[in-house]
Write a structure and sequence with these properties.
Distance between the termini of chain A: 45 Å
Number of helices of chain B: 13
Radius of gyration of chain B: 20 Å
Helix content of chain B: 25-40%
Strand content of chain B: 15-25%
Order of helices and strands of chain A: HHH
Distance between the termini of chain B: 13 Å
Structural class of chain A: mainly alpha
Strand content of chain A: under 5%
Shape of chain B: globular
Oligomer: heterodimer
Helix content of chain A: 40-55%
Radius of gyration of chain A: 13 Å
Structural class of chain B: alpha/beta
Number of helices of chain A: 3
Number of strands of chain B: 16
Largest interface: A-B, 18 and 30 residues
Number of strands of chain A: 0
Strand order of the largest sheet of chain B: 2-1-9-7-5-6
Amino acid sequence: MTADTDVALRVREALAQYLKRDVATIKPSDSLRDDLGLDSLATIELLYQIEEAFDVEIPDTDLPSLVTVADVTTYLQGRTTQAPQGAAKPNLPSR
Amino acid sequence: MTGLGVTSAIGIGVRQFWEAALAGRSGVSKLSAFESMPMEAYRSQVAGQIHDFAVGQYLVGPLAERVDRFAQFAMVATKEAVADSALQLGREDPYRIGVMVGAGMGGMVIAEPEYHRVYQALRPNRVVPNFIPEVTLNSASGALAIMCGAKGPNLTISTACSSSAHAIGLARDAIRAGRADVVIAAGADASIVPLTFGGFCSLRALSTTFNDSPEKASRPFSRTRDGFVMGEGAGALILESLDHARKRDARIYAEVAAYAATSEAHHMVVPREDGLEIANTMSMALRNARLRPGQVDYINAHATSTPIGDVVEIRAIKHLFQRRANQVAINATKSLMGHTLGAAGALAGIVCALTVDSGLIHPTLNYDDPDPDCALPGISRRAQERSVQVALLNAFGFGSNNATVVFKRCLT
């Protein structure tokens, strides 16, 4: 297994564990929000687990680029080479 | 409303607070170090802290020393509010004086280190005896009652960031229902401590991109806002029935005309994006006050400086107020000192009282790059002056919670 596919599998496994679903039902093209049903708070909880698993810190400004499962994988693979450029903060907890 | 008191990052005492607010002075600074905690690990490193607070400078006696910091803040603010009202509490029927306090977090200053100690030392038989009385949310309302001899209804309202807006509303309701002549309505929070602050960081609710320029971090309605700034403090307001106030020829800042409380029943930490629930809350409050949106001169917005929260509130204002949205004055008190959580409603209520009384509207700090989705002509980074007959206070809390309080100039 290559390092890249290992990351992909670990991301899908983290999602499966968080969603309490079979990992085989989670596809790289799945949207975190629209297909997997993660709202903003659930996304933050998932990313918290991924930060722990991969020993990285994901800045708020990088969150908008993380739309699909594959985006999260690509992001984590990229973090080993260079930090991505951020965009505006998405709809995070607010009251 | 006949008396006001403030403990805040921009001043302890109403006079100092109001001067700083009108001058647009920020109370946000670099987050103070938490003993040996690696501070660089916190995503957000700014806060609206009250530095060098020593309760003994304001209160004497053992009660103040045996309550948590948030309750001390409330006691200091209440002492000032009672003095400001000129009420002679000893001459009042004590059973007709109530206390309503909004508090979001409770006694976190004692709680966190004590949790740490008990788990680290594994000595549960050595928990400090005053832990429970200090940590409980209603320790502040209890302390205020003891301090003031107030034997009427004594309640604590905990709805996160809207707590003390409800305290003001429920204080009014208690007076109108005949359960009290006078109610001390207060709000207090002091939870800028390692675990709680870290919790808000993990929730990604706080500003993170202005760590090197703290005074710019709380920037409601700005295009570059990126989360709220955690603050601390307390506000206290003396509410009494009009008859009671007139009988003793009290100075009346404003009338608490109406109040509405709703739940969006939507999401624990995010408002409905269309703003309709917030618009409905404001509309209910105005109907209760028998006022129309066109009669509102000023809105003290909840405006925490979060990307979604500010735009939803403005969306709600535009929806309800229509063309009037372009005429009403709006400001964000949290731009001055961050978000004081359970104290925010009370401090905003004090701002409403002072604004109705003086016609002066404090600036919204850092509104130098307005977000087109939030921009309205009535928001300004400069102080404004206009006659304010009717003011609205908006407050929204985690748990899908909304409150609006309506204030009116009191025509005596």
